Amino acid sequence: MFKHIGVDLGYDDLEAITTEHGRRYVLPDGSKFPSITTVLSVLSKDGIEQWRKRVGDEEADKISFRASQRGTAVHELIEKYINNESDYTKGYMPNVIENFLDVKHVLDERIGDVYAQEVPLYSKHFGVAGRVDCVAQFDGKLSIIDFKTAKKPKQRKYITNYFMQEAFYAVAWEERTGIPITQLVTIISVDNEQPQVFIEHRDDWTKPLVETIQLFNQS
Predict the structure, then answer these.
(1) Can you list the residues of the chain whose pLDDT is less than 50?
(2) Where are the domains of the chain?
(3) Is 209 strand, coil or helix?
(4) pLDDT tens digit string along 68-110?
(5) What CATH code is assigned to 15-218?
(6) Which helix (H) or strand (E) element contains residue 214?
(7) C-alpha to C-alpha distance for 182 and 171, rounded to whole angstroms
(8) Helix H or strand E encompassing 130
């Protein structure tokens, strides 16, 4: 059983709207900030366009849909488990349950007190918003934790956008709560492989995050 510790963000939720320029979150004062995933998409735009040309739009749409559906389902299952729901596997496909079971021992052995799951955060300093997967103790240290799925093991140099996203959440969390977080944790369930765990420091990724936000604002 995971222990949950409530933290007051000053709001219950933030409305997310999808526009032709990507997702935006509506802040309590009515202003709209782009989502961190929309901001970071500027880094992969050219590569995605080349990939779509190579495999064709129809096949690209199928692959993207399947990956998105599976990733969402695995994340939901992890969230239910951490929320101590007794029937957390009910209704999920066997492959989704398998992906979850691959990382279950990491959750059990390394995650401690949980402060938030799936809560929206925003940073007035960055002018960006987003929804963090999990804020919890990891190996005894308060961390931003992100859950991912993959068909093959990831190389660190190719997932720097994950670390920038998590660095944003850490800064936004401190803005909203006054509680600093410097440890970033990425847990990846990999098909037919041991899960991957990447641990990074927030301060190593704030500069590239700022540069990417500037690039997005100029685009």
Answers:
(1) 46-52, 55, 59-65
(2) 15-218
(3) helix
(4) 567 789 989 999 999 999 999 999 989 899 999 999 999 999 9
(5) 3.90.320
(6) helix 206-218
(7) 9
(8) strand 128-138
